[in-house]
Amino acid sequence: MAGFFDRFFKKTEAGGEKHLQFDEVPGCLDRETKDAGAKIESAAKDARSAAVAGIKEIEEKIRNLEKTEISELSHPHPKVRQTALKSRANFITSMNKTLSTELPEDPDQLYNVLVELIRSFSNNMRRQGKYLHPTFPEEMKDLKSSLDIVGRALNTMTKDLKPSVELREKINKAREDYEKISSAANELRTIDGAAVKYERRIESLNKTRVDLESEKKSILSSGDYLEYESILKEIDSLKEEKSEVSVRYGSLLLACDNVLRKTAYIADKNGDKKISEKMNYLVMLLHSGEKKDSADASELYRELYPYINETISENETIIKTKHEAQLFSSANLFISQLGEICDAYSGTMSDLDSAEKRLSALGINEKLSGLDKKVSDIESELEKIRYELDTGRSRKESLADSIPAIIEELKDLLSEIEGRDVFIKGDWKDLARET
Q1: 72 to 9, 76, 82, 131: CA distances (angstroms)
Q2: What's the chain's average pLDDT?
Q3: Which of the four, 61, 98, 264, 402, has the lowest number of CB atoms within 10 Å?
Q4: How far is Cα 135 from Cα 78, in angstroms, rounded to an integer?
């Protein structure tokens, strides 16, 4: 960047050159704006004075036109006189309306008013005025000469204003360039300030993460964690036992379900409604999923077994497998198997519940989950910070690429405004304002 500015700064204050510091540019532009404004106001003042003089002449000649009589000798045809009289009245009304326009002192407003004034004069002369030339040739010619005074005032104003207006446009463009440079300097300052805060935050987050990882290592090497792992293995083993018991229970249901449902159907068909209802209720109990207590199902099965046994004896086709035949050969066999499975399930569930309570009491899982959540939050924040830093670096590169061209344009504009070579000294980044 230093080499870029060296091209401008090697010359000394000599040969009509002008050297400015960056922060001196606004003052220079203010002075040029004041000078251009003074020239514009002077040109506008002269034009206004000339226009006012012309308007006064026009007002006088309009009054003379209004007083002029039409001679029958010079215009014997009555239609010609009638048309001239009517047109004159309309023409004078329109002209007086236009002449009542106030001429402002503001240069921009004055210019626009004069343009509209001359346009209105021209329209009046082209419309109603064209009917007055044959009847009032001298008066209309004389009026035209006064209208030309206002037109020349506008033309002179336009000519005198052109250099100053063009200069003012260059000044405004130069000021716009300077504001872009100043804004970029402030943006750089903001980006750099944010980067410092982000780096401090990164340092703080990394320190916190190290502390969290140290705390996690401490937990993983503790006696409580060894117990935690032991209990986890115990829980896994108990869950396998639970699954095995559930499979055994399912096999028992599969073996008895067909016989019990067919027995309930036969009881209902034979009109034994109560037996059928009890049989269906037994099936419901066995399928309820509650395997901790087999007492209700065992008691009901014992009550219904005589009917079940009798039905099987009378309907041999109910039994499909040897396993079914063996299972229903006595009341105690089914009850014994059901009780054994339910007791095993209840014991396993009790042990599992106890192990899970001991695991929860250690609080290891909660501590590790809490630490992992904090580390994850830190990673998320670090990712956002890295994104902001990358965005800031990208924006700085963009400014570094674009600002030199704006500085070059500003230098050229200042040279045109001053009418001599202008060089800008210093670092544009120093334009950043304290916040």
Answers
A1: 85, 5, 11, 17
A2: 85
A3: 402
A4: 12
